[in-house]
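Sat 14:20. Reprocessing the chain from the morning session after the first attempt stalled halfway. Input below, unchanged.
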Amino acid sequence: MYKMTQELVKYQIWSVTTRVIIVALGFLQGIIVIRILSPSEYGLIGIVLAVAGIVGVLEHFGLASGSIREISIAKTLSEGSKILFTSLLVRVAITLPLAVGLFLASGHISNNIYHHPEIAFPLKLFSLILLFQGGQDISAAFLSGLQKFKQLFLFQIANAIISLLIFVTLVKYKGFIGYFFAMLWMSLISILILTTINFKVAKNKFILPNRSEFLQIFKEIFSIGIAVYIIKILYVIWQKTGILIAGLYLLPKEIGYINFALFLGLKTTFITDAISGVNLPLMSKKYNEDVEAFKIEFMENFHKTFVLILFSCTTFIFYSKEIITLLIGTKYSLSFSLVPFFVFSFFLYSLVNLIGVSVILPALLLKEAIYYYLILCLASFLAIWFFLVMDFGPIGVAIGIFLGVILSFLLQNIIIYKKLRFSVFDTKVVMSSISLIPLLMVYLLTTNQIFKAIFFLGISYLYFSLIKKLGILDWKKIIRLKSIITKSDIKTIII
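Finished this time. Tokens:
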């Protein structure tokens, strides 16, 4: 059997480790901010971020993804710098009118659409934030394209630490509006740090492209990024649509509960996000070399990722009430019923994303990818709207998000089966999923902590025994993974 290469495992370990540190810092930042703000204030922040997120995603145009690929194959630093400047100029040309439009429309959005005048100024601030965030994405893409992962890793860690300090300080002393001043400061600081790093990496070899070079580079970047651009727009619409529609029907406090559940749900995607960044180039290469071997290797890797994320999400849901109460008290207790839907929604989406970058994109099924992302958005939009009109309240938003991602996941796997003649719904996936259903049943039926603890330990033992018997995880092999990471790898990151 074609085994997963050590190269893939090593890069996945480093990528996941980096993401764990960043997510941990981001989670701490989020929890502190949530403890400081009231549910109503957090709900208003959710509305602003949802509106600004929809406007902001329009600026991407797949430029970052296209830039990474083009810079990675550039023969010299000078050629790479021309790609950087081309991408930056295009990004500014796209972002500037969007930022001006958001600034001018902020009053109408706040007063006439959502009827919350207090979000007008934050929307104006976000129009400035958009300008800096655009440059930040492209500057980070320059480092990725040059494979300067050490510098990028250190920047991401430093950025997360600075963000924690700035957000906590400004939210504590300025409250609701301090959140958006913190975003503005972080955008400024990030772009300054990245610019400094890029100048150091490029060693003064920055060269502006001439007119013909600019047009040629733009054409190449755009041709690569357009499908990714459409998919990214659809994903952000799906992610934000619950709060955007809820803002028309529900109170700020209720939107705060939704935004909190969304915050927790998003944290479940960090493992697959990290793995996806590694899988795309490596799995693309394997697909071109040997399709059948590619299928075997993908499934072997997918099984390991699936069982670990499934167990993590189920465990979090099982103890979600206790964890939330411990971290922030009882002021978000009304979000308890929302959390399972959001956690499993983003668990399923993380699988959609992982399968997309590991199978769909390497097989160049870009049109098909757009189809299942359209289903993701349309199904959730219609379901959320229906449930809110029928007065289901916040739980209607959670159910609508969940239904959309289920349909998208099913369609994606139908496409894979039709086009590539294999399915991720094999015996190992089904059996490992069924084995954790008892945990969810106990979560719904009892709050007795002693019984829950004993039951959790018993089911956990049976679960890991099962996946070992299925050949998904071998603990002896996992322990031996330390041999894959060499001293030189560690020095590359630390020094």
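The chain has 20 helices and no strands.
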